[in-house]
Design brief:
With about 325 residues, this protein is of the alpha/beta class. The chain is about 30% helix and about 25% strand. The strands form three sheets. Strands 3, 4, 5, 6, 7, 14 and 15 form a seven-stranded mixed β-sheet that branches.
């Protein structure tokens, strides 16, 4: 039997994405074979395709940072899941496919009652926002925060989770997307026409409690400048290269050493294998919030998995608010 996947054939734009056939093999010992139901498009998918991320594979490779699906088969020695289980995985690569082979012990239990397309953004975008807010910045009710990149998949997760904590939120986004920020009570700042540093200093002269920076680069320094004494900046944006990664980490370390009571941190989901228990607890919390209707991912569009090229073209258009999700044909 065969199955299809989408591969990056060379560095470049959506045109380098190509559908290929693969042999559907039995899973190896310790593996589970997952029939993919949904996979969110994520910013790292794009930067990996262009070669703008540290430690990325060389083409050809299958992109896709997260999946939701059903266990289709298990390999020898697997006891953590059984055939038919609904699961998720934080993959980094491999999600643009009809099937995925994955370490069974690294799978995430997912309630079958939830819509896979809505669960998919929780695996990366919402876990980033939840961790940055609650485990790194440790926000509390009434805190004043700035979300840099507030209209995308992670940005809208911040907005929804921020409402639950009763944060006073400011968000940086283009003018055409301000309505989504206002929907969640955030004050929008147009990065094309306004300097967010000036806006924040006028609106909050005592400074902010936290800044969530998804853009990196000079946004780290500028975001740090609007913190109050005791405030925290958490960066999570793609540093674009190994050199960029060391530069961002260097900035974070330097700013944290300054004698002004402020702190800076840099978040990465790479610690998910090290702190697996915490990740599983927090994914379970997010699944519960989705089940209770307290959060609901903003989904701009859904595409069949094998139409990933069209989905990537839309994502790169700059017009997307929230998430794009690839789904199995039967999920449309």
């Amino acid at each position: 039997m065969k199955y299809k996947s989408v591969i990056v054939t060379a560095r470049g734009g959506p045109e380098v994405l190509q559908v290929v056939e693969n042999d559907l093999r039995p899973p190896e010992p310790g593996e589970a074979r997952i029939k993919i139901l949904a996979a969110p498009l994520c910013a790292p998918d794009i930067t990996a395709r262009y070669g703008q991320s540290p430690f990325i594979p060389k083409p050809p490779f299958t992109p896709g940072y997260a999946v939701i699906g059903d266990v289709d088969a298990i390999g020898e020695g697997v006891t953590s899941v059984t055939v038919g289980d609904r699961v998720g995985a934080l993959t980094a690569y491999g999600a643009y496919a009809e099937y995925l082979y994955w370490d069974a012990d690294q799978l995430i239990p997912v309630p079958e009652t939830l819509d896979p397309a809505e669960v998919a953004p929780l695996i990366l975008n919402y876990i980033v926002a939840y961790h940055v807010m609650h485990r790194w910045a440790k926000v509390k009710a009434g805190d004043k925060v700035l979300i840099i990149g507030a209209s995308g998949g992670i940005g809208t997760a911040f907005l929804q989770l921020g409402v639950l904590v009763d944060l006073k939120m400011y968000g940086v986004a283009s003018k055409s997307k301000h309505h989504i920020l206002e929907e969640y009570g955030a004050t929008p700042i147009d990065y094309h026409m306004q300097d967010f540093v000036e806006v924040i200093r006028q609106a909050e002269p005592d400074g902010l409690d936290a800044v969530f920076d998804g853009m990196a680069g000079d946004y780290i320094k500028r975001g740090f400048s609007v913190l109050r004494r005791g405030g925290t900046l958490v960066g999570y944006g793609n540093p674009m290269s190994v050199a960029g990664m060391f530069q961002a980490l260097g900035q974070v370390v330097l700013f944290s050493l300054l004698p002004n009571g402020k702190s800076a941190k840099y978040y990465s989901t790479g610690v998910s294998r090290i702190n697996r228990r915490i990740f599983l607890e927090d994914w379970a919390t997010l699944f519960k919030l989705l089940e209770e209707g307290k959060i609901k991912p903003v989904i701009e569009a859904k595409f069949p998995i094998l139409e990933a090229r069209k989905a990537n073209e839309l994502l790169e258009s700059g017009q997307v608010i929230g998430n794009i999700v690839l789904v199995a044909p039967e999920m449309l």
